[in-house]
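// run 5 | inverse folding | seed 20
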């Protein structure tokens, strides 16, 4: 059986995600789709809207055959780290291709970008260094350096676009690890990744769907933009009295940790650099709600996303020392599968390049321990029971659900 791999967050899964899964299978000719999905904390330093188990159910209903969890250390990393962790897992799972959505939708443009940077690596790194010294954030510095190399507009990808950026890093990571997988890209449809509002007649962004709920406390306006299973699971989450994940509900816990531990302890937390621990501490002392706190910390050098990653690590206690023990994925954590996915795993079980973990208690590993710990922290904010990683088995979808949007 041939599998194609995709990298997802599904925060929450919407119609555009269904389209991506459909087109990935169609474009590659694969028999099934394997997804590597972030756990309960995400790449932009945010708690997930709903937990990884609910999002796995969404994925299986939408046509995904296997869902593996991207470990916390990669799921909350900046783009190169996130991409390398995901690509290594898809490679270990035996995927023959991987497919990513992009604004440009042209694989040759990404190949051109890789060649451009490879041929001018010293110049590129020098320009990045100068841009950081000038006060730009690291992502902005990368893009400025890239634009300097690409002044002639020679058909390379536009790396100012969020999906293009991730696509570039997927291809860069695949090249770095010597992956045998062939890349495929699908042009992204509908609303921009960061679009914060919903508009009728288009595929909405996950950001717009979340903001619609948080501004109204109602899911009604999201109905046209999500598949039936997503809608049902979100309604059930609400009916069960659970809180949807956002920083506002986690901020009291975060503030307690910051004020209790103080700036000196914060210096050991991953991504805390250049004295920002003092600014974070002062802001936490002054502000009792999240948005004013963030406005007090944000600057030209420190983007909202970069700060949120720091805060996620403070909340979960993820230190530089812990990160040093998790430099590469060491297992395939199974969250769910269809009948088709189970057949694939049975066929490939002897050739998988990492141990397959279906029970959390079956493996002693620092990265898995971190995932379990992060899930328990997430449970405190949302109202879920703790220790679900031990009590819940991988979800098995016993029928093939419709791949249609509704």
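// decoded
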């Amino acid at each position: 059986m041939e599998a194609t791999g995709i990298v997802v967050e599904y925060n929450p899964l919407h119609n555009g995600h269904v389209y991506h899964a459909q087109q990935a299978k169609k474009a590659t000719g694969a028999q099934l789709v394997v997804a590597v999905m972030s756990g309960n904390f995400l790449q932009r330093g945010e708690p997930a809207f709903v937990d990884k188990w609910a999002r796995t159910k969404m994925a299986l209903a939408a046509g995904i055959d296997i869902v593996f969890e991207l470990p916390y250390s990669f799921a909350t990393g900046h783009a190169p780290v996130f991409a390398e962790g995901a690509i290594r897992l898809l490679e270990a799972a035996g995927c023959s291709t991987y497919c990513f959505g992009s604004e440009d939708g042209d694989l040759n443009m990404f190949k051109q970008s890789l060649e451009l940077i490879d041929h001018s690596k010293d110049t590129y790194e020098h320009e990045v260094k100068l841009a950081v010294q000038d006060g730009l954030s690291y992502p902005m510095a990368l893009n400025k350096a890239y634009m300097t190399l690409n002044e002639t507009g020679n058909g390379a990808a536009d790396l100012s676009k969020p999906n293009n950026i991730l696509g570039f890093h997927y291809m860069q990571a695949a090249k770095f690890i010597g992956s045998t997988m062939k890349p495929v890209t699908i042009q992204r449809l509908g609303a921009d990744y960061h679009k914060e509002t919903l508009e009728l007649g288009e595929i909405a962004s996950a950001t717009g769907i979340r903001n619609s709920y948080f501004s109204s406390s109602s899911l009604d306006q999201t109905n046209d933009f999500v598949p039936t299973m997503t809608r049902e699971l979100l309604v059930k989450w609400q009916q069960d009295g659970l809180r949807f994940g956002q920083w506002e509900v986690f901020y009291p816990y975060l503030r307690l940790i910051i004020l209790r531990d103080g700036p000196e302890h914060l210096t050991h937390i991953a991504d805390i650099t250049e004295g920002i621990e003092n600014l974070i501490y002062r802001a936490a002392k002054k502000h009792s709600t999240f948005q004013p706190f963030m406005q007090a910390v944000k600057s030209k050098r420190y983007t909202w996303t970069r700060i949120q990653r720091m805060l996620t690590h403070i909340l979960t206690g993820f230190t530089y020392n812990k990160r040093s023990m998790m430099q590469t994925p060491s297992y395939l954590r199974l969250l769910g599968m269809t009948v088709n996915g189970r057949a694939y795993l049975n066929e490939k079980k002897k050739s998988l390049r990492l141990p397959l973990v279906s029970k959390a208690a079956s493996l002693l590993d620092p990265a898995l321990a971190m995932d379990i710990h992060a899930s328990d922290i997430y449970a405190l904010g949302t109202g879920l029971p703790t220790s679900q990683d031990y009590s819940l088995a991988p979800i098995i979808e016993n029928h093939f659900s419709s791949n249609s949007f509704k």
